[in-house]
């Protein structure tokens, strides 16, 4: 494989040079992962997914290209697991540690193992994957580890060479029809932005891009609370995404006092794309943005319904693809890391961000390993002082991770935001 980065992949590559844009998934297993099994699983994953063997090189004209030539083996580190929370320190370090994109590869693995349990931390450059890629990676990792633990070799059926997102859009997102569909959606966003006039959140302490430190906090709803929330969303004629966004918006207003807010929602484009995207590790995500004025005593569920109504036309397949395509076309050919970061942190693209990966149906047990869960972290320094809430549901429990960057958001404010959002979701679900 040797192809130029798509416009959206190129934008992420630029952002990463301004401030770490890595993302991490930590896989929590009951059972000890031996080093040889981890190295074998990493090698199988790399053969299966082309971008896991890639690095980035510049053409004579300065345009970045993915290439498989000359990429060294994927780094694997094996550490001692002295405490169940040791993975948090490793994930925090990994999410902030830059990749040498010229040398590659653009991912790495580390394992913290004791006699009874293991945490495997996979770190990715965002240009080669997104949160949904991480779920695929978790599935592959656990499958391959279980096969290797039985003394066999994993079966590797390589996914087709992964094209850029722009090459996979459906016909209704291309040509003049796609242009007008995307332009219409963007114009509606601009009009809503002009009416609502959301504001960028104030930073606790300003900091240059290169010194912003990615951090995260995690918590969860119980299985009973998760089921109650889903049921209540149906009763209130909204979505879980609507409720999560309402919780984040009202928590942000309560903590910061800012009532004019916007919310970025990443959109998984895989179900609408042609070709190899469904099963591949790659970046196949668009975005939707909603704009709001938060009333401190307003109805939580009215706000959740407002979010759903604003998101619905943006996440419909053809519209989401058309917007992503048009944004790529509007991106300047030459883009500096600082310009990319300044654009991303504008309130037009979200004072806060909320993404729901959804309910995951991974097998809880594979061979000698029990999958007890997995956790996400990501670098968000390029978003400025915008907190990012990530939700996923596994084995009936919804986990909620707050991503932020110090010192733009200090740990004390992050703790308050996270606790306020969790409290609002619990109250909305149970009425208490």
Structure, explained:
The protein is α+β, with helices and mostly antiparallel strands. It folds into two domains: 2-149, Chloramphenicol acetyltransferase-like domain (Chloramphenicol Acetyltransferase, 2-Layer Sandwich); 175-360 and 378-430, Chloramphenicol Acetyltransferase, CATH 3.30.559. The protein has helices at residues 7-18, 35-48, 86-95, 131-149, 175-196, 223-235, 240-256, 300-315, 317-330, 337-344, 411-430, and strands at residues 2-4, 23-30, 55-58, 64-67, 76-80, 107-113, 117-124, 213-220, 260-268, 285-293, 352-360, 365-366, 369-378, 388-394, 397-406. The strands form three sheets. A six-stranded mixed sheet has the order 5-6-7-2-13-12, with helices on both faces. A six-stranded mixed sheet has the order 8-15-14-11-9-10, with helices on both faces. Strand 6 and strand 7 form a beta hairpin. Helix 1 (7-18) crosses helix 10 (337-344), helix 2 crosses helix 4 (131-149) and helix 5 crosses helix 9 (317-330).
């Amino acid at each position: 494989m040797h192809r130029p980065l798509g416009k959206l992949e190129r934008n992420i590559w630029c952002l990463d040079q301004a401030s770490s844009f890595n993302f991490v998934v930590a896989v929590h297993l009951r059972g000890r992962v031996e080093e040889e099994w981890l190295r074998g699983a990493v090698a199988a994953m790399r053969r299966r997914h082309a971008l896991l063997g890639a690095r980035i090189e510049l053409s004579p004209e300065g345009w970045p290209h993915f290439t498989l030539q000359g990429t060294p083996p994927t780094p694997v580190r094996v550490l001692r697991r002295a405490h169940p929370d040791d993975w948090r320190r490793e994930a925090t370090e990994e999410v902030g540690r830059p990749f040498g994109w010229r040398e590659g590869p653009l991912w790495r693995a580390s394992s913290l193992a004791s006699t009874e349990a293991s945490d495997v931390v996979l770190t990715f450059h965002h240009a080669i994957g997104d949160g949904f890629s991480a779920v695929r990676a978790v599935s592959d990792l656990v499958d391959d580890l279980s096969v290797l633990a039985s003394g066999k070799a994993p079966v590797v059926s390589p996914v087709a060479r992964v094209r850029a997102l722009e090459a996979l859009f459906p016909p209704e997102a291309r040509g003049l029809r796609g242009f007008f569909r995307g332009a219409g959606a963007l114009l509606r966003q601009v009009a809503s932005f002009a009416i609502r006039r959301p504001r960028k959140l104030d930073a606790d302490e300003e900091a240059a891009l290169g010194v912003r430190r990615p951090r995260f906090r995690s918590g969860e709803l119980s299985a009973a609370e998760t089921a109650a929330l889903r049921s209540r969303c149906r009763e209130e004629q909204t979505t879980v995404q609507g409720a999560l966004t309402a919780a984040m918006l009202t928590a942000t207003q309560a903590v910061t006092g800012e009532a004019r807010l916007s919310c970025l929602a990443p959109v998984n484009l895989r179900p609408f794309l042609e070709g190899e995207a469904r099963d591949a590790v790659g970046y196949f995500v668009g975005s939707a943005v909603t704009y709001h004025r938060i009333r401190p005593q307003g109805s939580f569920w009215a706000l959740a319904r407002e979010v759903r109504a604003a998101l619905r036309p943006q996440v419909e397949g053809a519209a989401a693809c058309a917007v992503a395509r048009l944004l790529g076309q509007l991106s300047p050919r030459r883009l500096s890391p600082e310009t990319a970061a300044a654009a991303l942190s504008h309130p037009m693209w979200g004072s806060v961000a909320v993404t729901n990966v959804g309910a995951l149906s991974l097998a809880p047990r594979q061979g000698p390993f029990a999958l007890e869960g997995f956790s996400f972290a990501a670098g968000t320094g390029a978003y400025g002082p915008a907190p990012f809430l990530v939700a996923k549901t596994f084995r009936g429990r919804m986990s909620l991770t707050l991503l932020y960057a110090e010192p733009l958001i200090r740990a004390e404010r992050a703790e308050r935001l996270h606790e306020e959002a969790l409290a609002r979701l619990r109250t909305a679900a149970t009425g208490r």
